Amino acid sequence: MSDVVRLVDVRDEPLDISEVYDAVADDAAGAVVLFVGAVRDHDDDKAVDGLAYSAHSRVLPVLQTIAEEVAAGTPVRGIAVVHRVGDLDVGELAVVAAVSAPHRPEAYDVSRALIERLKAEVPIWKHQLFDDGSDEWVGTP
Predict the structure, then answer these.
(1) Is the pTM of this model over 0.70?
(2) What kind of fold does domain 5-131 have according to CATH?
């Protein structure tokens, strides 16, 4: 792990916002952007009962590479990202990411790039369970 990318993980247990925030703490950082993604109670006007996340065995190297790439060439001081797998209820945390930088524009830009690339490229798949008994897979190849 690089000096900038300080925490990258995928876990089947509840996520800790403080752990992710603390991982990017840096005396040279005047800004920390924290992103928290939670399971919402609806999707496309359908009520969601819960969901399950599954991940490919290569998830960690892919997530590590993305974190390093979004930080490259920026003044970012720290990046941390943890994603949840397994069964989650409405309201539970699915992903927590933090980026520290000397100033807010860089922290915002890198945080957004990290989350957008995570959603588009990391091999994590979401199985949504709706209250009408139907279900839907999201992000599958």
Answers:
(1) yes
(2) Aldehyde Oxidoreductase; domain 3 (3.90.1170)
